[in-house]
């Protein structure tokens, strides 16, 4: 028969190792976020937003880039932003909205003559900002 003290010791050891693993994994997420830098860069995006149609495309591209950097800083894996967004879907309040904003960025980057309007720009930037808040960057 197995000694009950050995069983208890193994049980406590397994629980302790599991807890240690969880602490290490969760402490890596968000450890490289410089909230001041993210806030400063977001303010620049807001300035671009207010400069009218010619600056809107740049604002969308910069917001997308900022979100990707926040995903990476939070430890989300993937070779592309799309892969990181898929991994982070449970952390984002409006995953579908963020995907729509990212798709708008892709249109701007890959298609000629993309026409933006204030409503679509405001919506996309709002989704990027909410995602950055969800990730603790803002």
Highlighted features:
single chain; 138 residues; mainly alpha; Four Helix Bundle (Hemerythrin (Met), subunit A)
Return the domain count: 2
The CATH class of the largest domain is Mainly Alpha
Overall 3D shape? elongated
Order of helices and strands: HHHHHH
Percentage of residues in DSSP E strands: under 5%
Radius of gyration, whole Å: 21 Å
Distance between the termini: 58 Å
Mean pLDDT: 89
Low-confidence stretches are none
Report the helical percentage: over 70%
What does this protein look like?
By secondary structure, the chain is mostly helical. The protein has two domains: 31 residues; 100 residues, Four Helix Bundle (Hemerythrin (Met), subunit A) (Up-down Bundle), CATH 1.20.120. Helices cover 74% and strands 0% of the residues. It has six helices and no strands. The longest helix is centred in the N-terminal third of the chain and has 25 residues. The radius of gyration is 21 Å and the shape is elongated.
């Amino acid at each position: 028969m197995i000694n009950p003290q050995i069983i208890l010791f193994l049980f406590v050891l397994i629980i302790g190792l599991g807890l240690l693993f969880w602490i290490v994994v969760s402490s890596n997420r968000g450890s490289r976020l410089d909230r001041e830098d993210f806030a400063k860069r977001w303010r620049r995006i807001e300035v671009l937003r207010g400069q009218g149609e010619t600056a809107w495309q740049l604002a969308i591209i910069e917001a997308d880039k900022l979100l990707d950097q926040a995903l990476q800083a939070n430890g989300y894996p993937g070779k592309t932003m799309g892969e990181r967004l898929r991994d982070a879907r449970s952390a984002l309040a409006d995953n579908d909205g963020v995907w729509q904003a990212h798709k708008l960025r892709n249109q701007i980057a890959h298609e000629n003559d993309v026409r933006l309007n204030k409503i679509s720009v405001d919506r996309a930037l709002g989704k990027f900002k909410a995602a950055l808040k969800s990730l603790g960057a803002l």
